[in-house]
Amino acid sequence: MDFVARAPRLPAPGETVLGGDFRMLPGGKGANQANAAARLLREGRVHMCGRVGYDAFADGLRASLAAAGVDTAFVAATQQAATGAAMIWLDEAGQNSILVAPGANLAVDRAFLEPLRPLFRRAACALFQLETPLDTVAYGLLIAREEGALTILDPAPAQPLPRELLEQVDLLTPNETEAAMLTGESGGS
Fold first, then answer.
1. Counting Cβ atoms within 10 Å, is residue 131 exposed (0-12), middle (13-18) or buried (19+)?
2. Parallel, antiparallel, or unpaired: how do β-strands 2-6 and 85-90 relate?
3. Edge-to-edge, what's the strand order for the sheet holding 171-172?
4. Which domains can be identified in the chain, with CATH numbers?
5. Tens-place pLDDT, residues 115-143
């Protein structure tokens, strides 16, 4: 679930800034991408794979995906953690700061992915991001490629990535901050 607050400017560390508009929106990077893909796709199916908690947000997030045409059969609930959440602050210029608490997505592991092989086999592409454990992402990329899917990685949140993981990626989609992290160049915002 995304918790979005607008403010005239982003707060400095330790500072309190009086904000304006606040909204709770179904989200998560992977869910937003699945939602957009399902709305754009004319033929075929978009599947979302991940975990939610047993909490007030889980059913609403699944329903939001289903309303967009996303198959949520592989969005499993876990009692290990709460549904993931993101706190997003937006300033008047459109800049943002985002804090992600992945919650239940940290329970997505290799054992969760292995039964998805037939799904990857039928998929044209498989999109991953880094809000699940890095080992899980690496394994998912590997089995998706083994099963013939084009692999896409949205490398967020930005972090150094091992060469072995990157070698399993067909299409990498970094923003400025992520590109700077991956190349070792200064920059980003």
1. buried
2. parallel
3. 125-129, 150-154, 171-172
4. 29-82+105-183 (3.40.1190.20)
5. 999 999 999 999 999 999 999 999 999 99
